[in-house]
Structure formats: C-alpha cells, structure tokens
Amino acid sequence: MRRSKLRVAFGTDSETTSYIVQSFEELFGRRLDFDIESDRSLLGGFVAEIDGCVFDSSLSSKLAEMKRTLLKG
Asked: CB of 55 within 8 A of CB of 47?
C-alpha cells in the first residue's frame, strides 16, 4: 500500500488528526496509511497527499480562495 502524507498545523490535537484520517478513509473506502507531520508553517488546517492527489484545506489556501473571489466582483 502506498503511504499517504498528512501535514497538520502545529498544535493540532490527536483527536482532530484522527478525525481527518477517518474522514479520508471513509471518502476512499479503504484504510489509508498516513505519514503525519506537524508543520509550523501552516497557520491552521491541513494538507493531505493521497495517491498523488493533494487536498489543501490550509488556512492560507482558504484565504487565497477568498481573495480570488473578492477580486472577481
């Protein structure tokens, strides 16, 4: 099985990390083997890489998305 990567914001508790892992396992319909890293560069949220796909739910990506939306209008 290919290992997946999960980077979480520094200080994220184990309960939240477990919830993220469980949510991805439900989404993919199988057990996923994550390398989990606490990343001080993330202000909040997480970034997961699974089967070559990146799921970026970090605070910085959410702010960038909001900025793009505001600049469109």
From this structure: yes
Say how many Å lie between the first and final Cα of the chain, rounded. 45
What distance separates the 2 farthest-apart alpha carbons in the chain?
Answer: 45
Count of the separate structural domains present in the chain = 1
d(CA 65, CA 2): 30
Q: State pLDDT tens for residues 44-60.
A: 999 999 999 999 999 99
Q: What is the domain range of residue 26?
A: 4-72
Q: Is 67 helix (H, G, I), strand (E, B) or coil?
A: helix
Task: List helix spans (H) across 1-73.
Answer: 14-28, 59-72
Check residue 29 and report its DSSP letter: T
